[in-house]
Specification:
alpha+beta; 5 helices; about 15% helix; globular
């Protein structure tokens, strides 16, 4: 699909997932699949429902859930904040600004490619960035549960799962397109990132970024036909 044009300055505001729920359940060794997980999803945009992988201390096992791509902060009264959707969180400030999330609310956001735009205003060129062999990427992310104050306690839609993905300084290969890129974790880093009993320290974030740089350096990119 040809992605719609994002606002200037947005980073990774569009991504795609060319995989089914069954595919994801196998790749991520899922124990429990939630309701209405949107997979495949040719183009996800901010505030869309997206697929996320998470673990929690309250519910045993690894889960595949649907989340709103827009991280809700504690105490937020409405889902849409005054500054727009929070879709990306900088890895450099994750521990200091989002300690409440990184401690026990880390997740993976599956994708098979994402888009970035480069060039001058009015003539920006979209690029698609993806693995060369088509495997599923696992972007490091954080999540939160937002409580709708306008709904009754027994309303099943009272709680909304929300999420954002981590970004880091771009690897050399992708820097000509954008100065930042998501943090795609290799499979051997998934357990530590998801495990809610693993302390969410600055060291854990640094290790995730280091692992992610290796994956990001292998990604291919190509211009998207603007016709």
């Amino acid at each position: 699909a040809r992605p719609g044009r994002p606002r200037l300055g947005d980073m990774c505001s569009r991504y795609g997932l060319d995989a089914t729920v069954e595919d994801l359940a196998g790749v991520f060794e899922i124990d429990l699949v939630g309701d209405d997980v949107p997979a495949p999803a040719p183009e996800s945009r901010p505030t869309d429902r997206v697929a996320v992988v998470l673990e929690s201390e309250k519910t045993p096992g690894r889960r595949l859930e649907a989340a709103r791509w827009d991280l809700a902060r504690p105490g937020q009264r409405e889902l849409r904040g005054p500054r727009g959707p929070l879709i990306n969180v900088r890895a450099e400030t994750l521990a200091s600004k989002f300690g409440w999330a990184v401690q026990r609310r880390r997740c993976l956001i599956p994708a098979t490619g994402y888009w970035e735009w480069t060039g001058p205003k009015g003539a920006r060129q979209p690029y698609v960035i993806r693995p060369s062999v088509g495997e599923v990427l696992a972007f490091a992310g954080v999540y939160s549960w937002w409580r709708d104050p306008g709904r009754d306690e027994d309303d099943p839609s009272k709680w909304v799962l929300t999420a954002a993905l981590l970004t880091m300084d771009a690897v050399e290969r992708l820097a000509p397109i954008h100065d930042r890129n998501p943090v795609p974790l290799p499979a051997d880093a998934w357990d530590d990132w998801l495990d809610p009993t693993t302390p969410g320290t600055e060291a854990l974030v640094v290790a995730a970024v280091s692992e992610g740089r290796g994956v990001a350096a292998t990604l291919d990119f190509a211009p998207v036909d603007r016709g």
